[in-house]
Amino acid sequence: MTIDTPKTQVNLTAEELYNFLADVKNFEKLMPENTSKFEILGDEKFLFALSGMPEIVLVIKEKQPNDKIVLGAASDKLPFTLTADISETGENSSEASLTFHGEFNAMMGMMIKGPITTFINTLTANMAKL
User: Fold this and answer.
1) pTM, whole model, 2 decimals?
2) What does the pLDDT read at residue 111?
3) Low-confidence residues of the chain, pLDDT below 70?
4) InterPro entries, from UniProt (predicted)?
5) Pick from 126, 120, 125, 13: which is nearest to 71 by CA?
6) Fold for the domain defined by 2-128
7) What beta strand segments (E) does the chain contain?
């Protein structure tokens, strides 16, 4: 299952946005209001939970300076990645989109597609407010 968000304009350079996303502490600022838990587990690892959902641990899997950051599930139970693609659009602006990709059975996919879509759309919308 792959879910893409539309590109959103961010009032940061590509380098500034990349540096913001490369610091996992900053993801707390992007989380939706219904986040019930957020905890830093290391330099490249954090845990979060949304109300009514299980806790998820994300870890940075790949970094391409100023272009891309790939986060992945720390557990193999729900294998997925969340990729932020960044591109420079002006002197002090960039655009970003998020792509969620996971390998789930059809039943699990149907159950999580709505909440995941809402979640990554919220992350993208909150990036636009930076």
Assistant:
1) 0.91
2) 86
3) none
4) START-like_dom_sf
5) 120
6) Alpha-D-Glucose-1,6-Bisphosphate; Chain A, domain 4 (3.30.530)
7) 2-4, 8-10, 35-42, 45-50, 56-64, 68-73, 80-90, 93-102
